[in-house]
């Protein structure tokens, strides 16, 4: 990979000549792994390993056969232990990592969520509520929190890592937030960290689901450090009182500001910019956006705009409202059907065009749930 790949992507968001590689199949495969987690539980042992290594509390997501897909049970195991280590004077750092070579965590079991939503099961409330509560606990943890995000890091895996103090990427890291492809939005605090990336990079990633690899994850500002995978060892961190940046090998480089393609105040405006630009990059992104749920695109844009000035806690409250709106809508279930169940890759979105998604319907998704709002 070229050392300047991310810079070229940023430049092409103004006027491009390079066609970036979009591997739609990878996004589909990662979502499919997560949806299949309940059928592939042959892995022996607990879903999460919680142990002490020196003065470090170590969390290991222990479902490598399903790319460490996150479940509600895993959330319920991690949260109390994180709070215990935070208060424990003998624990000076918390480390989270994924078992296996392929993934840190590729996300959650979206098919299970879809099935629960259709049947009126409480999972659609409990999962989002408890996941966001854990994400907030990570973001407010008083101890250094180090996420070793080698391999696939998407969706729920982003929530388990990006709000911590240190996110260590490797050459194997693959980051993406592909939720708009299945009628959702980039949640788990995406409304907080994505608008805070330089320029319009966060909005670009949120709308398109574009994936970042290796050092680009650091250059984008998603990771704080980069280490070659062969040099990553939990024992190193466990022996330290807190992570030292010299050991974590920071390689940060400035990321140029994004251009005008994603500067519009509406999704229609962004689409118009892309089509008017006419470059191969712009044409590719316009084609990609045309496949996404129009409702998801509009919810995501407003989420990014609002989240840019919110606290982390306010973002989670907003995103819980959005999650429940999606659970009560059409597109999430249709996206899961088209991408993960029937796999025809031909979702029938309702509404089917951006123009049909009204401002009123978007605003409704952001309204307070009253006594059912998320409390942090």
UniProtKB/TrEMBL annotation:
Its EC number is 3.1.2.4. InterPro entries: ClpP/crotonase-like_dom_sf, ECH_dom, HIBYL-CoA-H. Residues 57-366 form the Enoyl-CoA hydratase/isomerase domain. Pathway: Amino-acid degradation; L-valine degradation. GO terms for biological process: L-valine catabolic process. It catalyses: 3-hydroxy-2-methylpropanoyl-CoA + H2O = 3-hydroxy-2-methylpropanoate + CoA + H(+). Gene3D superfamilies: 2-enoyl-CoA Hydratase, Chain A, domain 1. This is 3-hydroxyisobutyryl-CoA hydrolase. It comes from Denticeps clupeoides. The gene is HIBCH.
């Amino acid at each position: 990979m070229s050392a300047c790949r991310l810079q070229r992507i940023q430049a092409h968001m103004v006027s491009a000549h390079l066609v970036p590689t979009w591997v739609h199949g990878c996004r589909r495969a990662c979502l499919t792994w997560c949806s299949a987690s309940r059928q592939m539980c042959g892995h022996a042992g607990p879903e999460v390993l919680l142990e002490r290594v020196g003065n470090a509390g170590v969390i290991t997501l222990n479902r490598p056969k399903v790319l460490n897909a996150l479940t509600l049970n895993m959330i319920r195991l991690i949260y109390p232990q994180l709070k215990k280590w935070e208060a424990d004077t003998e624990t000076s750092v918390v480390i989270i990592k994924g078992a296996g070579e392929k993934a840190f965590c590729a996300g959650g079991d979206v098919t299970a969520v879809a099935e629960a939503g259709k049947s009126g099961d409480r999972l659609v409330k409990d999962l989002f509520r408890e996941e966001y509560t854990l994400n907030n606990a990570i973001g407010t943890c008083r101890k250094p929190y180090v996420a070793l995000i080698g391999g696939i890091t998407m969706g729920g895996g982003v929530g388990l890592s990006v709000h911590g103090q240190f996110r260590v990427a490797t050459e194997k890291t693959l980051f993406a937030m592909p939720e708009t492809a299945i009628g959702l939005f980039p949640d788990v605090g995406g409304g907080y960290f994505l608008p805070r990336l330089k320029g319009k990079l966060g909005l670009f990633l949120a709308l398109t689901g574009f994936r970042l690899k290796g050092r680009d994850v650091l250059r984008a500002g998603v990771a704080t450090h980069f280490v070659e995978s062969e040099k990553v060892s939990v024992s190193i961190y466990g022996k330290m009182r807190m992570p030292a940046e010299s050991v974590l090998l920071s390689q940060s480089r400035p990321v140029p500001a994004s251009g005008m393609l994603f500067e519009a105040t509406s999704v229609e405006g962004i689409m118009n910019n892309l089509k008017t630009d006419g470059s191969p990059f712009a044409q590719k992104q316009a084609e990609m956006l045309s496949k996404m749920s129009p409702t998801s695109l509009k919810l995501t844009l407003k989420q990014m705009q609002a989240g840019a000035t919110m606290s982390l806690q306010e973002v989670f409250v907003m995103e819980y409202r959005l999650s429940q709106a999606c659970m009560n809508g059409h597109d999430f279930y249709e996206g899961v059907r088209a991408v993960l169940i029937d796999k025809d890759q031909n979702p029938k979105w309702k509404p089917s065009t951006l123009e049909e998604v009204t401002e009123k319907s978007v605003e409704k998704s952001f309204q307070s749930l009253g006594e059912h709002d998320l409390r942090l």
